[in-house]
Amino acid sequence: MRIALLAHIRYPVAPPFTGGMEAHSWHLAAGLAARGHDVVLFAAGDSDPLFAIDAVVPEHHERRFPGLEHRGDPGLRAYVDDGYAAACDRIAAGGFDVLHNNSLSRLPLERRRTARVPTVTSLHVPPYDALRGFVHDSPAPGHRITVTSRAQLQAWWPEGAPPEASVLHNGVDPAAWPFRDRGDGSAAWSGRLAAIKGAHCAIAAAKRAGIPLTLYGPIEEPDYWAARIAPELGGPIRYGGHLDGPALAAEIGRASVFLFTPCWDEPFGLVAIEAMACGLPVAGLANGAAREVIGEAGCLVEPGDAAALAGAIGAALAIPRPVPRDRVRRLFSRDRWLDACEALYRQARAGL
Q1: Which pLDDT tens digit goes with each residue over 210-237?
Q2: What are residue 122's DSSP bridge partners?
Q3: 105 Cβ partners below 8 Å, 6+ apart?
Q4: What is the pTM of this model?
Q5: Contact 120, 28 (CB under 8 A)
Q6: Which CATH superfamily is domain 2-171+333-351 in?
Q7: Which ranges of 195-269 would DSSP assign to H, the alpha helix?
């Protein structure tokens, strides 16, 4: 199939990934290409040149409009809307068999567009007012919508989802996250260093539990970093940097437990299954889809109780490392994910 993949443009779709949305688009493009599909990645122009890039905007918008996401800035809004509108027009005229829409733009959801190109839209965020109405108005025979968990399906459609909407769990390549049969007694945390990701909760719990902790990921919110993270660093609490995939997998795999601390309605938790593939059991907060994703591979507690989270670390350490690895292989492998994507593409194409 000739597939257009429309990405989020806040950051480049390139390693080391800033977040799950960038990782999702990169691995989707790579996986589909490996299966013989002709993939064009519509993304920020400074994305990975490994792919055939059709630039939605010349450079990712966090570089041009730093710190203005979700603040209603008119310049940013025009930059994003103009880029997506033109990209959608090129997709409609480009002879594509299907569009996989990974953006947060309302424009690819318009019925006049989904009526021209079979579309699969993947929602990677909880519902919010700027997008909710457009999503609810968009289901159609040629437009399939996915969310990353049953928890998010319920959040987007509390009264019941339409037949065009379904759960598409994220997947990882277990070979990219090699299993290790033992850890070094430390804890690891990875993700965007932003308040909603809760690294401060991980630090508090690790200190209570008396276990060394290393944080990995990009510093997305400098003020949060300066106020809540940097003052805690030193001794057993360290920052390991923002690493690319192989380096991060090697570092995560050395640890004995992974701390997963979402302070929001977490849609999935890609970092958790990456660590689980390496064999790390998870101690974390039961927000959003955490229980659905982690299951028997971890111990989760309700948010707001550092003592309980510290206790969860000890409980998680008792889980044999093959348990999280086997859960990923059974439920969240890259091949399972790509099989589901291809099935959705066939459904969308049959609808037009």
Answers
A1: 999 999 999 999 999 999 999 999 999 9
A2: 146
A3: 6, 80, 81, 84
A4: 0.94
A5: no
A6: Glycogen Phosphorylase B; (3.40.50.2000)
A7: 199-209, 222-224, 245-254
